[in-house]
Write a structure and sequence with these properties.
Number of strands: 21
Shape: globular
Structural class: alpha/beta
Helix content: 10-25%
Largest sheet: 8 strands, parallel, barrel
Distance between the termini: 42 Å
Strand order of the largest sheet: 1-2-3-4-5-6-7-11
Strand content: 15-25%
Length: 409
């Protein structure tokens, strides 16, 4: 594999589907955040950001020393183009640092209507070779988000044959599409929901069986189990154990997938990759502490793979279309009162005598027994069954405000 000097400060780029997830990304160590407005973004499931929220998001990011990238990566139809100039001008006014773009017409409009905003080329553009990357750079792009179908060697060659000023962004974690960089028509064909409008129904995750034309209702399993087969269901990507290789290949920004994922997902994954990056920069050549990759088993995920990076294909998770879920957040720490009691805001039911696994930014998780819990009036309670109820915890362990308390289920 081609070797290149790793950048001094590689960027960690995290997703945000709303303000809660944006705050989580910033709190747990993201250098930059990517999100969408109410239009022209490839995810419709999250709340996304309205006009005032986008101003607030930019202000919050910049106060934290982080950058804000706005996805504008759909391929608009003719009737949508008239709304683009105002959208682009507004984004520049709000303080967006870069657009993530696919369509060349939108790219040209961004140059004209928001010239102060950098232009990044989306993975939807399918940049899989150095010629395409160089062409986008010559057109004015400062970064290309590489196609997810590339190997380490191919990324290394792209780095070697493009200007060093061109930034290379690559996915390091999250769900993968069964099609090439999201160019799938299954959802539109089967449900009428357009993936290019961020409305994919994910039919690749469904359970399939074979039906013969003259035997309706007789479902014959394709492979695996009597219940059916998930023949299109791709595994999730996880590159936590291969960050040095990504950086050596020339990647300058590590991107976490998941704008439709929860704030808990954003917190855990961002914290793990932040810890891994910091460790490798300080301890080159040494193996990661075990707790860092173990964190990624504490979120909802499909079976992990290294994608296409190591050659070959990631393959499918054929046994199930669902997620592995082993942990859930039971409370969020609001702080400590003057009388020494720790205030928790409940998220899922927990009981006296449970043990919570605590996640705080920038440190290894630790456990806290929930032996002494009380209601707001100080009365002992046996359980916290009500959503967002305040619970007082008597503990000698200092828990930082914003810390997540979780339990294995």
């Amino acid at each position: 594999m081609m070797k290149h000097a790793a950048p001094k400060i590689p960027e960690l780029l995290a997703p945000a589907g709303d303000m809660e997830r944006l705050s989580a990304a910033l709190s747990f160590g993201a250098d930059a955040v990517y999100l969408a407005g109410k239009e022209f973004g490839m995810r419709s499931a999250p709340k996304n950001f309205g006009r005032e929220e986008l101003f607030q998001a930019a202000e919050l990011c910049h106060k934290k020393g982080a950058k804000l990238y706005l996805t504008c990566n759909t391929v608009p139809r003719n009737d949508e183009l008239s709304r683009l100039p105002a959208f682009l001008e507004f984004a520049q006014e709000a303080g967006v640092d870069a657009f993530i773009l696919t369509d060349l017409g939108v790219f040209d409009m961004a140059k004209r209507y928001a010239p102060k905003v950098e232009r990044h080329i989306s993975t939807q553009a399918g940049v899989a070779n150095w010629a395409a990357a160089r062409m986008f750079y010559e057109m004015g792009a400062s970064r290309v988000v590489l196609a997810r179908e590339l190997s380490m060697e191919e990324i290394g060659e792209i780095r070697a044959k493009t200007p060093p000023e061109l930034e290379l962004e690559a996915f390091c974690h999250g769900a993968m599409c069964m099609s090439f960089s999201g160019r799938c028509l299954l959802s539109n064909y089967l449900t009428g929901r357009d993936a290019n409008r961020g409305d994919c129904a994910q039919p690749c995750r469904w359970k399939y069986a074979l039906v013969e034309e003259k035997r309706p209702g007789q479902y014959m399993p394709v492979v695996e189990t009597e219940e059916g087969s998930y023949i299109l269901n791709s595994r999730d990507m996880c590159m936590i154990g291969h960050i040095p290789e990504l950086l050596a290949a020339g990647v300058t920004s590590l991107k976490i997938e998941g704008r439709a994922k929860s704030a808990y997902y954003v917190s855990v994954v961002t914290n793990a990759y932040r810890a891994a990056l910091n460790f490798h920069l300080k301890n080159p050549g040494e193996p990661l502490p075990a707790w860092i990759p173990e964190e990624l088993e504490k979120i909802s995920h499909r079976e992990y793979s290294t994608g296409f990076y190591m050659g070959g294909e990631p393959g499918q998770e054929t046994r199930s279309g669902g997620y592995v879920r082993s942990y859930e957040v039971v409370a969020v720490c609001e702080g400590r009162r003057e009388d020494g009691m720790t205030v928790l805001s409940q998220r899922n039911r927990f009981f006296r005598g449970d043990t919570a696994d605590v996640l705080e930014p920038g440190r290894e998780p630790y456990t806290v027994p929930l032996d002494r819990i009380f209601d707001e009036e100080g009365n002992p309670i046996e359980a916290a069954p009500h959503a967002t109820m305040r619970v007082l915890l008597d503990t000698d362990t200092p828990i930082a405000p914003g810390a997540l308390l979780r339990e294995k289920r």
